Amino acid sequence: MKLFENHNLKTYNTFGMEVFARKFVEIETAEETPAAVAEYLQQWPYYILGGGSNTLFTKDFDGTIVHPVFRGIERMEENGDNVLLRVAAGEPWDNLIQYCIRHEYYGIENLTAIPGLVGSAPVQNIGAYGVEVKDTVYKVQGYILSTRNPFGLSNADCRFGYRNSIFKQTLKNDCIITYVWFQLSKRKHFTLSYQGLAKALEERELPLTLHSVSECVRKIRDTKLPDPKIVGNGGSFFKNPVVPVEQYQDLLTQYPDLVAYDAPKGLKKLSAGQLIEKAGWKGKRVGNAGTWKNQALVLVNHGGATPNDVLNIADSIINDVNKLFNITLEMEINRI
């Protein structure tokens, strides 16, 4: 382990907010986790920080930040149809994507270029272009902070939902994830339900391979989303709202082009980005913060923005969308 005090978090959050943590602990091996729990995580406040890609620090953190940095991808079991991988929490997510492409393991290629670390993926149940990580998670390992006991949760035990899991509910702030196990297919198959992805592959006349699908996803993301290394952002700031079919049909009478996808229990999932755009916020800038010119769902730090600058815009967007559609947007990003 490494301990730093009064540590600048600017390079540890993709919004690029210059805030400081009173203590910052790097866990360098999974075996160090129990010691880190015993020494640093028995008193509030503390926060487990992955890649910082879904986090908005609203002020200096007067407590302990714990940051797992240990890496590794191991093949645990394999047969003619599937492979079981155990991946360390500190492994960058896109490293896993590239590993799977090289070895021709199918299932997560649509999640290419999502920033962050593997340990954060099941917490948020990351998803994109018709795929969610829950579709491939076999189990999750880690430590419960309150009991100091190790845990292993199956896919069902993780209680995955849309951008949700047990790690955001009953285990929120009470566990450190050390390993995520993935069950991936060795048989060729793709998920092309997202119209934009299928269209991009067709237009480029590319052969259907893991590499071509991954690269198309990357290009689509590049056209819509800013590179956080250049323009600070936390990705999608709001969740796509889920509404009753009746409400969706009422909205269609006013907005015939409203985008919607089927959701469980006969509900409809709307595009938060489209709602924000229709509310007049796409590409709008207020001081040093704003929404991205190509995707209204992404709030950005143009340089020098404060957390309050971002939150003020978020509040204005929530109010304007509610007035226009009678829908209250929910933040997807974690406010710390």
Describe the structure.
The chain is globular, with a radius of gyration of 20 Å. The longest helix has 19 residues, at 307-325. It is built from eight helices and 20 strands. It folds into three domains: 2-68, Uridine Diphospho-n-acetylenolpyruvylglucosamine Reductase, domain 2; 73-185, 2-Layer Sandwich (Uridine Diphospho-n-acetylenolpyruvylglucosamine Reductase, domain 3), CATH 3.30.465.10; 232-335, Alpha-Beta Complex (Uridine Diphospho-n-acetylenolpyruvylglucosamine Reductase, domain 1), CATH 3.90.78.10. The strands form six sheets. A five-stranded antiparallel beta sheet has the order 6-7-12-10-11. A four-stranded mixed beta sheet has the order 1-2-5-3, covered by helices on one side. It has a four-stranded antiparallel beta sheet with strand order 13-19-18-17. Strand 8 and strand 9 (131-132) form a beta hairpin. It has 336 residues and is α+β, with helices and mostly antiparallel strands.
